[in-house]
Amino acid sequence: MLGWEFPPVYSGGLGAVSKKLATELAVLGADILFAVPHFVRQNIGNKDIPRDFEMVDFDDEKFTKNITLTKIHAGFQSPYISEKGYTEQLKTTVLFQKNKSQTAQKSHAVYGQNLWEEIDRFAAQIELLAADQPASKKIEIIHAHDWITFEVGIRAKIKLNIPLICHVHSTEMDRTGGKPNQEVFNREKYALEFCDRVMAVSQFTKDILVNQYGIPDSKIEVIHN
Fold it and tell me: Which pLDDT belongs to residue 142?
């Protein structure tokens, strides 16, 4: 399963649903390898946060008997970041790193110089992870949440020759009020055409996929959060 959040580190419905799906599948006996980005930690100078509060993070461990959470280094902190947003975030990250020790700087990963390069770099890491699983943990199906992980899912599907499910929580069309970034729209459309099954969180979302992306009605299952 490829996602962007996993409680207690999450900001919305995608994270909550991801954990619930993984947990319920594990209860049914499935072994789940859940890959999420390990977001870049930045020095947040928000004076509204009390000094005795800390940002919650997770450790690499099994949350249930059958769920293994794996952190993948990535240079973006949101699945909905724009090209401009990524560029600004990259500048902030570089400035932050310059204020750290030489040792810390050397240990940090290299980021893509633009959003699309970073997505491809992230996808390559997951592709290696998927191919490196032992025979006893052979991956049999891929479940990708929202558009940035779709590229990862496509590469893993091709590499392992296994089914891919694309889980759509929102589309570029409704996120932008019908004025999409064409590159994001194209990537969404290609993945939804290429995958084996599509899960939409609402009939509204399914209608967008059918009417504006041209995805066959029969390929899409509506599963409400």
Answer: 93
Q: What is the pLDDT of residue 68?
A: 72
For the range 64-69, what are the long-range contacts, defined as Cβ-Cβ under 8 Å and sequence gap of 24 or more? Answer: 64/23, 64/26, 64/27, 65/26, 66/25, 66/26, 66/29, 66/30, 66/31, 66/32, 67/22, 67/23, 67/26, 67/32, 67/34, 68/31, 68/32, 68/33, 68/34, 69/6, 69/34, 69/36
Q: Could you report the per-residue pLDDT of 163-201, keeping only the tens digit for each? A: 999 999 999 998 888 889 898 899 999 999 999 999 999
Q: How far apart are CA 111 and CA 109, in angstroms?
A: 6
Q: Distance from CA of residue 205 to its chain's centroid?
A: 19
Among 137, 188, 186, 138, smallest CA distance to 167 is for: 188
208 with 180: CB under 8 angstroms? Answer: no
In our burial notation (b when 16+ CB lie closer than 10 A, e otherwise), range 108-131 reads: eeebbeebeebbebbbebbbebbe
- Stretches in the chain below the pLDDT threshold 70: 8-10, 38-65, 69-116
Token pair for 62: 């099994």
The angle at the Cα of 81, spanning 11 to 79, to the nearest 5 degrees, equals 50
CB 35 within 8 A of CB 23: no
Query: pTM (2 decimals)?
Result: 0.74
Q: Cα 133 to chain center, whole Å?
A: 20
